[in-house]
């Protein structure tokens, strides 16, 4: 039996499939007693210490706790993510590419979320280098990649013919040239367009 083709849409995990900042807030409150974090005002999540007014060391501890061990599996998906992805996985393999650090059980989390799909239908790649991420997508002939980090979207657009789609988050609410989706219904609405392109590729 030959493998099914890759779905023309591929996905980042944190901030697209999983609500990583709600997860951050849950860990901050339960394990560190920190409440009232305002993620709506976060403009740059690489400077969370400044944005949230917490010491760097505390941010580091929260991130370690939320990404590893028992907390990692408690990440909540966005509404509709599991249902839409399960539908997309009926006749395609699904590729997820995440910048999560090695050893974090993100693959187990995705597989658990999509437990109704055969295991071979799902591939989760941990790629911290955005350059490598772009190459990987091109290699798999992915048509569009849903991502919440604008820097990565720009890089994908420059390096490949993969179309970056921005999943709306407070930290990507600035001017940019990419199409924006706000929820998983809007992601599902993209499928027809990009599948169509797959069937009739543009002439070289
Ligand atoms: Mg992300």
Strand order of the largest sheet: 1-4-5-6
Second rung of CATH, namely the architecture of the largest domain: 3-Layer(aba) Sandwich
Please give the count of helices: 9
* C-alpha geometry: globular
Low-confidence stretches: 197-204
Rg over C-alpha atoms, rounded to the nearest angstrom? 17 Å
Average residue pLDDT: 92
By DSSP, the count of extended strands is: 6
Q: How far from one another are the termini?
A: 31 Å
CATH H-level homologous superfamily name of the largest domain: HAD superfamily/HAD-like
Share of residues in helices: 40-55%
Q: Report the sheet with the most strands, covering strand number, pairing sense and barrel closure.
A: 4 strands, parallel
Ions and ligands: magnesium ion
Strand content: 5-15%
Structural class: alpha/beta
Order of helices and strands: EHHHHHEHEHEHEEH
The number of distinct structural domains comes to: 2
């Amino acid at each position: 039996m030959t493998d099914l083709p890759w779905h023309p849409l591929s996905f980042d995990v944190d901030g697209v499939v999983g609500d990583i900042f709600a997860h951050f807030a849950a860990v901050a409150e339960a394990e560190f007693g920190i409440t009232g974090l305002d993620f709506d005002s976060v403009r740059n999540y690489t400077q969370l210490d400044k944005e949230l007014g917490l010491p760097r060391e505390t941010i580091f501890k929260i991130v370690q706790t939320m990404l590893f061990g028992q907390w990692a599996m408690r990440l909540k998906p966005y509404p509709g993510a599991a249902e839409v992805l399960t539908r997309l996985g009926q006749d395609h393999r699904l590729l997820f590419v995440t910048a999560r650090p090695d050893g974090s059980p993100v693959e187990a989390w995705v597989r658990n979320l999509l437990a109704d799909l055969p295991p071979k239908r799902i591939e989760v790649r941990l790629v911290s280098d955005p350059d490598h991420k772009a190459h990987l997508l091109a290699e798999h002939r992915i048509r569009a990649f849903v991502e919440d980090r604008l820097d990565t979207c720009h890089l994908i657009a420059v390096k490949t013919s993969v179309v970056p789609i921005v999943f709306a988050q407070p930290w990507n609410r600035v001017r940019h040239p990419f199409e924006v989706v706000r929820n998983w219904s809007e992601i599902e609405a993209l499928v027809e367009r990009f599948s169509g392109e797959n069937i009739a590729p543009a002439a070289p």
